[in-house]
Amino acid sequence: MTAQLLASEAKTVGSTNLAKFLDETGRDLADVYRGNNTWTTILRRAELLPSPTTPVPSEAALLKRMHSFLHVDDSERAVAYRQFTADDAPGYDDLDEWEQTLARMLFFNLWDKGGFTSYGEGLASLRTQHAVRDELGQLLTYLMRTPRVRAPQPLTGPHAHIPLSIHHAYNRSEILAAMGVARLGGQLPGFFAQGVLWDSANRTDTLLITLNKSERDFSPTVRYKDYALSRTHFHWESQNSTAPTSTTGQRYQQHAKQGSHILLFLRDSKDTASGKAMPWVLLGPASYERHTGSKPMAITWRLHHPLPHQIWSGTATPSPTA
Fold first, then answer.
1. b/e sequence 163-175, b meaning 16+ C-beta within 10 Å
2. Each residue's pLDDT tens digit, 131-141
């Protein structure tokens, strides 16, 4: 499918409304955001949206980030993100702590390698990005009318302050921002490529699990054997350097006694069918039950929330829109 074909269909529909285009053509969001396409670039190719005489600084880069919102599937996050597409968007400093965390999730979804001295500065810069705000607002509005966007199922207990929801999808930027690990002047999501994270502030081991590890994307040394044993038990292999007697290995085994926690995130593969990075679904907290072997340790985790049927069926995470 070519950008020119999509532009031709947009011209036939004759509207700048994304939902109207999708409804009348039978296309889905994966079609619109395939390759380097965005709704704005399609509209400009169709001559339904004027191209700026002078390119708006950073607009092209921000439009390329629109696909990073296709997986949003809880109503709270969609509403929180969408408020920053309005002309009267709140200032970062006017938000409470929970809202600021959601704002940082949005920030790092747009700027995963930073680029600003503060979150307020970055979010305020959106005021000049009229095309970006319009497209993101339309995208989130469309998602909110689909069955995939559901009410959140918040984390509880020691993680109750983290705005992540059980069995909902997140990308790396959102996860790191929500956990408080991503920060300006420190760890930036665009430079983080690990599958495990020890978050000392929350005393939590976060495990980012990819089920199907292709030879192209994963070397043999990191092609760990991870799979669901049942709806409540998950088999996971640690990093090759982790022995049961190591600090990390002991923390995995003794986390309940030591007062630390385990959070599991799961995705089917590294990329979606359209070549975009696949998000992870938060399975929630888990508890150590047993292990075998060393370097890597083969650990059985007990999930506090049973796997949803659509994940357990075939042990595969639900595919996002794109």
1. bbbbbbbbbbbbb
2. 999 999 999 99
